């Protein structure tokens, strides 16, 4: 199965979609620095409530700056289709840096060097349902609900 997935990924990298995503990314990023940034909008009422609720020992400016930073990308392995161990073995040759999410056994933060060539959502593993792109914070409620 691993060879077929790698072959499909190679084909996807050569498609027009792969070239489109690489061009789009190049338009917005120069190296690792965003060229076009979008700031998160906060309604004035929310900002006023947060200023009032935030302890004086914390910096409101640091809170706003933290809200502007992008979230770490994360995935959840679909254990109905593949075990975590098999998924890690399958993706090991890709050089993906997968860091376990402490509250979700099948969740990982992911860092990839090949995002320009093939977006994560276009990989054969994602298209075949082996993993979902899901924010780590969204994995927490389920973990809490089914905690032993």
Automatic annotation (TrEMBL):
GO biological-process terms attached to the record: rRNA base methylation
The SAM-dependent MTase RsmB/NOP-type domain, residue ranges: 63-148
The protein's Enzyme Commission number: 2.1.1.178
Protein name: rRNA (Cytosine-C(5)-)-methyltransferase RsmF
Family: Belongs to the class I-like SAM-binding methyltransferase superfamily. RsmB/NOP family.
PANTHER family: 28S RRNA (CYTOSINE(4447)-C(5))-METHYLTRANSFERASE-RELATED, NOP2 YEAST -RELATED NOL1/NOP2/FMU SUN DOMAIN-CONTAINING
Domain of life per record: Bacteria
GO molecular function annotations of the record: RNA binding; rRNA (cytosine-C5-)-methyltransferase activity
TM region positions: none
Key words, A-Z: Methyltransferase, RNA-binding, S-adenosyl-L-methionine, Transferase
């Amino acid at each position: 199965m691993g060879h077929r997935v790698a072959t499909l990924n190679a084909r996807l990298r050569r498609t027009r979609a792969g070239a489109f995503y690489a061009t789009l990314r190049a338009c917005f990023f120069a190296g690792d620095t965003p060229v076009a940034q979008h700031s998160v909008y906060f309604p004035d009422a929310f900002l006023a409530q947060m200023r009032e609720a935030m302890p004086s020992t914390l910096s409101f400016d640091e809170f706003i700056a933290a809200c502007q930073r992008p979230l770490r990308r994360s995935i959840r392995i679909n254990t109905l289709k593949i075990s975590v161990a098999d998924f890690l073995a399958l993706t090991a040759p890709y050089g993906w840096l997968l860091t376990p999410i402490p509250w979700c056994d099948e969740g990982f933060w992911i860092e990839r060097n090949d995002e320009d060539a093939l977006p994560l959502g276009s990989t054969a593993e994602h298209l075949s349902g082996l993993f979902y792109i899901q924010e780590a914070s969204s994995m927490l409620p389920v973990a809490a609900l089914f905690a032993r």
